[in-house]
Write a structure and sequence with these properties.
With 162 residues, this protein is an all-alpha fold. It contains five helices and two strands. It has two domains: 46 residues; 112 residues, no CATH class. 16% of the residues are buried.
Amino acid sequence: MAFCPKCGNQIAEGAAFCGSCGAQLGAVPATPVSAPPGSAPPAAVSTMSSNVAGLLCYVLGFITGIVFLVIEPYNKDRFVRFHAFQSIFLSVAWIVFRIVWGSVFMGMFFTPLSTLWGLFSLVSTLVFLLFLALWIFLMYKAYNNQKYELPFIGPLAAKQAG
């Protein structure tokens, strides 16, 4: 059995392309190429499925979203690109919301309405828990190969994903 020079996977005799990575093999030797005695065959390069990559886009927010937009096999997959862009846009929206909410929250502390500080603290905690639930829900949908579009952010992510 011959091995692909690009990815190291075994290829069928006479094949013009590698079945794993798609590399053009050109003239494949008719005789099987064997590894030297006592050595292991080349390690196979495997990629994760699109649903796992889509889930991982959400793990660290915009950081993993950007990573999956840069990594070679995933930056061409529309499903992964959609979830990466949606993760980036949702992270940016969360950061902007936290800045605005924090400004309002701290402004309330120094006004005569400081008695409402406890209520604002409770609302802030509830908003955080709802956002966390949304984040987990999006990871669940991505893992199940479903493209769930959030209002406002989803269509923008779909447009960017192409």
